[in-house]
Design a protein that fits this description.
- By secondary structure, the protein is an alpha+beta fold.
- It has three domains: 58 residues; 341 residues, no CATH class; 27 residues, no CATH class.
- Helix content is 31%, strand content 20%.
- It has 13 helices and 16 strands.
- Strands 1, 2, 3, 6, 13, 14 and 15 form a seven-stranded mixed β-sheet that branches. Strands 7, 8, 9, 10, 11, 12 and 16 form a seven-stranded mixed β-sheet that branches. Strands 4-5 form a two-stranded antiparallel sheet.
- Strand 9 and strand 10 form a beta hairpin.
- Helix 2 runs antiparallel to helix 3, helix 2 packs parallel to helix 4 and helix 6 crosses helix 7.
- 27% of the residues are buried.
- About 7% of the residues have low confidence.
């Protein structure tokens, strides 16, 4: 028989166990008396085990793990569903599988989809390329004469028809009428009525030892905007949508180790383009057509193409977005704005610098930025002096050191940026009581897009009732294009210059 150890204590761990306690029907003291008699000790409640102590605050780890597992599973299902929906919308199911397998977040998925879309080239058609010899032989007037006579048998007319058919075949475009043909953009190197009776309306084109190079073109608005770095897309087909990141994920500091991270994802939208039709119309007499030297060919080309080019420059800057016009920079929502005064005011270097600030504070100013002003504003800028406007206020801000620079043209830079001049910018604006006010634009012109649809200009020959009575022929040129701004923050304008 083994040995047992017995100990006797005044307060047992279990009040039901002890020497002689089985003889007691009830405890001799209640819990409150025990607490009062033994302040240093606490009697455990009757019929209650230590493990059931209601004062215990330890979490049940199994419950915590189960809740965390449920939340993680729900978040994973949401991640997978969102990625699948995003990729399915853009027909990128294989990419969705990769992103899900890699555990990528929805924000990462959006970036991947944006990159994949950006890598896909915009649908375009190839240009109709003319060799140098073909380009030298190509004549718009051969096509015009063939349309008037109905005879396409000549070599020149046959070349015009062949290239017109090639434009239609490659671009998918359809002529708007029977008396039309396409001129490839590559074949292009205006607006009055030209008659041989008047020197200024066609007579000077009839040969009397006339040299085509001596033809003096009419003055037009300069067309410098495209040359400032506008991105040009050619051969577009149908509507175009270019993805754009419109917002970026934000960051935040964690105040404690258990601070929850607020989800903030990049947002995306699209820059869209759709065809806008621009037409130029020229009229000339039958006599001019029959007697004209090659100068009439150059006249028609320049009248159509230069007029269209000037209108496109104006559309990039001023397009209203209504009445068939594209939306130009000045009418794009979200560009920066600088105001000179309640009723407008004189241009200052401070205002021009403020334009720069409007762009740079949005992190949109890069090396491709430039100013565009009209001739009135340019004249006012040239009169600005380093210390004021009077003759004693210092040297002019332009050509400040004439001995070093020379007496050549004014350097086309302002505030360290190129400056272009075109009267396409208006000088007839109003503000308050101010009238005859001018606009100026500053920004990164590489963020402007110019898209041409198809790969040719459509020429249509016809007559109206007035033409018939006067033996005139109308030549109309139509080009389809659109303008878009990738980031409005890349531009700023001032609309109240009193120059």
């Amino acid at each position: 028989m083994g040995a047992y150890e017995i100990s006797v204590v005044s307060v047992p761990a279990d009040p039901k166990i002890g020497v002689g306690r089985s003889l007691l029907a009830e405890p001799t003291i209640n819990q409150g008396s025990a607490d009062e008699a033994q302040p240093a000790a606490r009697v455990a409640p009757l019929n209650t085990s230590v493990s059931e102590d209601p004062m215990s605050t330890a979490p049940d780890l199994s419950v915590v793990r189960e809740e965390a597992s449920k939340k993680a599973a729900s978040a994973e299902r949401t991640r997978i569903r969102n990625i699948q929906e995003l990729c399915s919308k853009h027909e990128m199911r294989e990419l969705a599988d990769q992103l899900i397998e890699n555990g990528s977040s929805l924000d990462v998925a959006r970036e991947a989809v944006l990159e994949r879309i950006g890598a896909k080239p915009v649908e375009t058609v190839a240009p109709v390329d003319l060799g140098q010899k073909v380009q030298e032989r190509y004549s718009i007037m051969d096509g015009v004469r063939a349309l008037l006579s109905g005879d396409w048998s000549s070599h020149g007319a046959g070349l015009v028809r062949e290239l017109s058919q090639e434009v239609a075949r490659t671009s998918g475009l359809t002529l708007t009428g029977e008396r039309s043909f396409f001129v490839p953009f590559s074949a292009l190197s205006q607006r009055a009525t030209y008659v041989t009776s008047g020197a200024t309306t066609g007579g000077n084109l009839v040969a009397t030892d006339l040299l085509a190079d001596d033809f003096i073109e009419a003055l037009r608005n300069a067309s410098p905007v495209v040359g400032l770095g506008v991105q040009t897309l050619t051969g577009l087909v149908g509507d175009v949508a270019i993805p754009r990141r419109s917002g970026v994920a934000s960051t935040s500091y964690l105040s404690t180790e258990t601070t929850a991270i607020t989800q903030a994802e990049s947002t995306f939208d699209q820059v869209t383009m759709s065809p806008k039709n621009l037409a130029a119309l020229s009229k000339y007499s039958r006599q001019t057509l029959l007697q004209g030297t090659p100068g009439i060919e150059e006249l028609i080309r320049r009248d159509l193409t230069d007029g269209i080019n000037a209108a496109i420059d104006a559309a990039i800057l001023n397009g209203s977005g209504a009445s068939g016009q594209p939306t130009g920079i000045r009418n794009t929502t979200g560009i920066g704005s600088v105001a000179i005064g309640t009723n407008g005011g004189a241009v200052t270097m401070e205002a021009m610098v403020d334009l720069e600030t409007e762009v740079s504070q949005d992190n949109a100013l890069i090396s491709g930025a430039a100013y565009v002003v009209n001739a009135k504003t340019m004249g006012a800028l040239k009169k600005l002096r380093a210390g004021g406007s009077s003759a004693t206020d210092g040297s002019f801000l332009f050509n400040a050191d004439l001995q070093a620079i020379g007496r050549g043209p004014t350097p086309l830079t302002l505030n360290g940026y190129p400056i272009a001049v075109t009267n396409a910018l208006p000088s007839n604006l109003t503000k308050g009581t101010g009238t005859g006010l001018s606009a100026a634009v500053m920004g990164d012109f590489s963020q402007a897009l110019l898209g041409f649809y198809g790969n040719g200009l459509e020429i249509t020959v016809g007559t109206d009732s007035d033409d018939f009575s006067k033996a005139l022929t109308s030549v109309r040129g139509i080009v389809s294009f659109d303008v878009a701004v990738r980031h409005a923050q890349s531009f700023a304008s001032v609309e109240d210059i009193n120059a």
